[in-house]
Write a structure and sequence with these properties.
The chain has 273 residues and is mainly α. It is built from ten helices and no strands.
């Protein structure tokens, strides 16, 4: 009897590694397969469809990337861009959430700020690069201003939409239990708005990547945009593709972090994409 129980208890233990591998493949296998197929497709197109020195295959690009990592130049460019993105994105998100909560919660504030929001948000951030350089110079302030501008309206609108989308019954239920406006704000409005805020921040982060490259193309000594500009000037095609691959991988990694945060803080309702 004891031997039979031992055999039965050891069977799930032997099956656990296979279950673990299946779970690992289910979570990461298709992503890995997608990345591999992407680079295989790149290799095939560069060699057999668009065979040109202006479109190098992946292996020379990877070798050049390793060289830039070894001499430290790639880390300098990536650090410069990420620090600017982090500063501008954080400031823009804080402003967007604060103003969005006010706009969504109070009709007088919405009517007052609506002309500003609905006019300024249609001016592309890249169109303000020259103005930012005139106002703040070619230092870090101009890049941070551009990133903040490109972030704030996206987060603002999604936050306000989250506040407006709150079911009136939730507010009435809180009021019937004796909650005041402050308690309704912190215990009803904020939790219900978090999924919208995180979704807006995900979209704004992609916009921030686009904007920082454009800003660094115009006025920067370091950064991924400056790297692209120098590669264009000196016809360093492989450096150009290294910068593009780095942008793609950084964006993918940051978006995965946002999805993880979405599941952690906002549950299933924010797991968009």
């Amino acid at each position: 009897m004891t031997q039979e129980m031992a055999v039965q208890s050891s069977a799930p233990a032997r099956a656990d590694p296979w279950r673990w591998l299946h779970s690992l493949w289910h979570r990461f296998g298709l992503h890995l397969l997608g990345f591999v197929s992407l680079f295989v497709l790149w290799h095939v197109i560069s060699l057999y469809v668009f065979h040109s020195i202006l479109f190098p295959p992946p292996l020379p690009v990877f070798r050049r990337g390793i060289e830039l990592i070894e001499n430290g130049n790639l880390f300098v460019e990536v650090d410069a861009s990420l620090l600017r993105i982090l500063a501008g994105f954080t400031l823009g998100s804080l402003l967007g959430v604060a103003i969005g909560l006010l706009v969504g919660s109070f009709n007088p504030v919405r009517r007052l700020l609506d002309p500003y929001i609905e006019t300024l948000r249609f001016i592309p951030a890249v169109a303000l690069i020259t103005v930012a350089v005139i106002w703040f110079g070619i230092g870090e302030s101009s890049k941070i201003f551009i990133i903040t501008y490109s972030t704030v309206f996206i987060v603002l609108i999604t936050t306000a939409a989250g506040v407006v989308a709150i079911a009136p019954n939730k507010i009435r239920a809180a009021q019937s239990l004796g909650a005041n406006r402050t308690q309704i704000f912190f215990f009803v409005t904020l939790p219900a708005t978090v999924p919208f805020v995180i979704t807006g921040m995900r979209v704004a982060m992609a916009n921030a990547f686009t904007t920082i490259v454009a800003a660094e193309l115009v006025a920067a000594d370091h950064g991924i945009g400056a790297m692209l500009w120098n590669a264009r000037l000196y016809m360093m095609i492989e450096d150009t593709f290294v910068a593009l691959v780095v942008l793609a991988l950084l964006g993918f990694a940051i978006d995965r972090c946002f999805r993880w945060l979405s599941g952690l803080f906002a549950g299933k309702y924010s797991a968009v994409g």
